[in-house]
Amino acid sequence: MATLYDVAREAGVSKTLVSRTINHQPGVSPENRKKIEEAMRKLQYTPNQVARSLVLQKTNIIGVVLDSLCEPYYFDFIRGVENGVDDTGLEALFCSGRELPAKKDRMINFFSQGRVDGIIIYGSATDDISIIRRLAKRTFPFVIVENEAHIEGINSIVVDNVSGGEMAVDHLVSRGCRNIWHFTGDMKKTISQSRKQGYLNGMKKHGLTVTPKMIIESSFEEMMGYMQMKQLINECAGNLPDGIFFGADVTAVGAVRALQEAGIRVPEQLKVVGFDNDIYCTAGKGIPGLTTLCQPLREMGIEAVNILRDTIQNPSAERKNVLFSPKLIIRESSSNREEGI
């Protein structure tokens, strides 16, 4: 295997000039650069990336910390990051915090010790906010995605979850619903808190009363939605709401299954709106197509890479806070049969 010294000898120049050429540094004449590049091709020399990173103090790698690498829901975001790095010449290294704050903290510390040039942190757990605050006190480039942490001086990308909750209520009202209930997502997530606030805003806007029993604190689990809906059916004794906004599609899927088992027809008797456009959790479940709020996850992944690249290249650049709007996708679960979807 050819070495830096071999290239220098073949080109008839010093090792310093070879190193400057490899690392795209000034101080190399066009004539010498041409000789060095020809020598590298002839000897099939491949630069040592570890050595390059030590010289340049750059790895051309970004770290991406997610709550999970196994959940299909994250696939579109991952694809967006991959598309983004393809366009920037960077590489991405993905890892999972498994929704454990200590694990996520270790991964962020591991990455930020010179192993990558910057980090994308995806997730909205309130427990992550203290981790983000500590990282914000350093100069290491990073961008958070989804967490509405409201920390000054950091890059962030979020979806307007409050607006999404309002849109869900607006849609149900437009379909004739007046007794609209809300199953929250995991309330330890900032997104769930915002979607609940959007529900409350929407109900107030339409002059609809909300009582404590109309808000059911749930999770991001299908079984939780299923069990809570079965309990609601038993407790309401036939006096169910006419519309429900679920803070997550996965919870809505479990709830609709319970409604079907009880002989309650969706959307004829009860209309349903979810959030996330999680097509993976609804596939093959035998339920009506789910009306939902869609997040542009692929576009968010691309934007995260672009923001991080800009911060890496110019650490003093103004930090960016990007707000994406969710899109209402109307399907069968909220349709009026006589109108179609």
Kindly list the characteristics that best describe this protein.
341 residues, 6-stranded parallel beta sheet, 4-stranded parallel beta sheet, 13 helices, 12 strands, elongated
What does it look like?
- The protein has 341 residues and is an alpha/beta fold.
- Helices cover 44% and strands 14% of the residues.
- Strands 2-1-3-4-5-11 form a six-stranded parallel beta sheet, with helices on both faces.
- Strand 6, helix 9 and strand 7 form a beta-alpha-beta unit.
- Helix 1 (4-11) crosses helix 3 and helix 10 (222-236) packs across helix 11 (249-261).
- The longest helix is centred in the C-terminal third of the chain and has 17 residues, at 297-313.
- The relative contact order is 0.12.
Protein topology:
Elements: H1 4-11, H2 15-22, H3 30-43, H4 49-56, E1 61-66, H5 75-88, E2 91-96, H6 101-111, E3 118-122, H7 128-136, E4 142-145, E5 155-159, H8 161-174, E6 180-183, H9 190-205, E7 215-216, H10 222-236, E8 243-246, H11 249-261, E9 271-273, H12 279-282, E10 292-294, H13 297-313, E11 321-324, E12 327-329
Parallel strand pairs: 1-2, 1-3, 3-4, 4-5, 5-11, 6-7, 6-8, 8-9
Antiparallel strand pairs: 10-12
Helix pairs in contact: 1-2, 1-3, 5-13, 8-9, 10-11
